[in-house]
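Researcher: Here's a chain I'd like modeled. Treat it as a single chain, no partners, no ligands.
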Amino acid sequence: MRISDEWQDYECLAAGEGEKLERWGNIILRRPEPSAMWPVEKDEEWNNVSGTYYRYKDGGGHWEFNETLPEYWTINYKDLTFKVSPTNFKHTGLFPEQATNWDFMMEKIRNSNRKIKVLNLFAYTGAATIACSRAGADVVHVDASKGMVAWAKENMQLSHLENNYIRFIVDDCLKFVEREIRRGNKYDAIVMDPPSYGRGPSGEVWKLEHNLAYLVKKCSELLSDKPLFFLINAYTTGISSTVLYNILKITLEKKYGGKVDNGEIGLPISKNGLVLPCGIYGRWQN
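Model: Modeled as a single isolated chain. Structure tokens:
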């Protein structure tokens, strides 16, 4: 497991019995966490929070706040700055466990000694986009949600990267990739964080188990003659990281060499030294 343990502004304070307690800067939030299935003693710390997210039995949920919070605030990871804001669907606009992947990408880009062009698919609020741009890459950022792309632009401005080449696109990721192939465009690195299920801006249906292998195959046609890395993140319950390993090995290793690895990513839990599992990854690198 790769653990994102270099945070200063974020901390998973405690987790268990389907919930987690987190510090975002100086604001404490309590949220559902299905993977935290172990027992935990929920002491007074669990009640002394800025806000709690309650999930409805039939889906969705709502926040209840014990104090007036700003509409948003910012936290830093090393030299990256991100906007944080509790949303109606439980998220805060940032997945801190991904820091280990940001470090991997930034190191690969900085050590390449050449200009790298990165394609970020299902790019959400752009944390990976900002990390790659900070490392010196040109980035094309694609997401189907206009609101998330707007949030990503705010993160770009917060990290003072306005003068870097970042192209923001609202589009269905698979359709965009197919058009890029026809245009003859090439990328040195590709990162994607596909959802289990989603819809594109024109109603296109995405199902990870049906579409992922095809998307990766099409993305391989976009890679340059000297590709640097290909990273897949996933949160789909029941899908093993070995699936990502197999897809990347079949699609990329035979053609480009390099190596593939896979596993879980997680966050350290301050209270007891345990690790909170937060998803899976598969990555190919040259």
